[in-house]
Design brief:
Number of helices: 5
Distance between the termini: 38 Å
Helix content: 10-25%
Shape: globular
Structural class: alpha/beta
CATH class: Alpha Beta
Largest sheet: 6 strands, mixed
CATH architecture: 4-Layer Sandwich
Strand content: 15-25%
Number of domains: 1
Radius of gyration: 16 Å
Amino acid sequence: MEVHTVTADAETFTCNAYLATGDRTTLVDAGAYEGVVDAIREHTETLDAVVLTHQHGDHVEQLDAVLDAFDTEVYAYADHARRDHAIDDGDTVPVGDEDCEVVYTPGHAEDHVSLASEASLFSGDVVVHDDGAFEGGSFGRTDYPGQSRERLIESIRELLDRLPDSVEHMYSGHGSVFHGDVREIVERALERAERREPKYPDE
């Protein structure tokens, strides 16, 4: 399975939107990059599905543009005007060439899910490899209204419990893609979150 970061050329704030090509060409999050449709078309003319990790603006701002450009279906945990399929904890969703288990991981967002296959983790914002706060394992911010560090910690623990040992690719909502020992990155993110110290100085 090839995975392309189709928001890589964005010059304004966006999440990482990932295009997984294969048996079921899938976009994980739509991002906020106005050029995302053209970026997708550099790799494929067809799109089988869009799966949302959560519905914060930087992950869904360009969803309408993507859906208007491609005849595709939307999978999401929370209700959305253009959602075709509701997904829930424990469901299986095909992404590219891999079958991913849906793991409900709130804390950063109430509707947050992660997608874990035997080889790959699409972690959204619950865990990232690197960001402005930490390198080699960080966690989503929880300082905005409606967010919860305690719930996020529970989510990371749950993700670890259900993460196959064979996972070696992590595609997170921000920062860089990671290839290697994904469990180690998630464990380090959990350790840092459990300190319960502010992620950012103003948190």
